[in-house]
């Protein structure tokens, strides 16, 4: 399988969530991440893909290989045009749940990766970007 250095996958169905996990696995293997780091990135991507579909009404996952200070990494962006997150501080609080998903939530996903950034505005959707460095 030839891996593109960047690309986009739709997140509109449950099947797309499976496809996103498979793509992230392939991207992590291409980057030669350890099995532990692969598992962390796939788990975070699965949670964020599900959030994009369930809470954002669907959207997309974009990926790109990045380099900083001589290190290579994988950056994923989960984007939707949904209702946004009404209380970002609450959503980033450990133990808070909307009642669905794997129960990791945003704080759990944040702990699994090296870099985590979220932008959300009411009525304008949400973008979560995560990076795992080699």
From TrEMBL:
Q: Kindly name one Pfam family recorded for this protein.
A: HATPase_c
Where on the tree of life does the source sit, at the highest rank? Bacteria
The family database entries (InterPro entries) matched by this protein are listed as: HATPase_C_sf, HATPase_dom
Q: CDD domains attached here?
A: HATPase_RsbT-like
Domain (Histidine kinase/HSP90-like ATPase) spans: 37-131
Q: What is this protein called?
A: Anti-sigma regulatory factor
Question: To which species is this protein native?
Answer: Variovorax paradoxus
């Amino acid at each position: 399988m030839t891996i593109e250095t960047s690309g986009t996958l739709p997140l509109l169905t449950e099947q797309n969530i499976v496809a996103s996990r498979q793509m992230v696995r392939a991207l992590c293997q291409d980057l030669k991440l350890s099995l532990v780091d692969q598992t962390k990135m796939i788990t975070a991507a699965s949670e964020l893909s599900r959030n994009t579909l369930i809470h954002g009404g669907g959207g997309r996952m974009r990926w790109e290989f990045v380099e900083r200070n001589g290190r290579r990494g994988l950056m994923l962006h989960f984007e939707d045009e949904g209702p946004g997150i009404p209380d970002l501080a609450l959503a980033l609080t450990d133990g808070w749940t909307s009642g669905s998903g794997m129960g990791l939530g945003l704080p759990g996903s944040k702990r699994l990766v090296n870099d985590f950034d979220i932008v959300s505005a009411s009525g304008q959707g949400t973008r979560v970007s995560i990076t795992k460095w080699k």
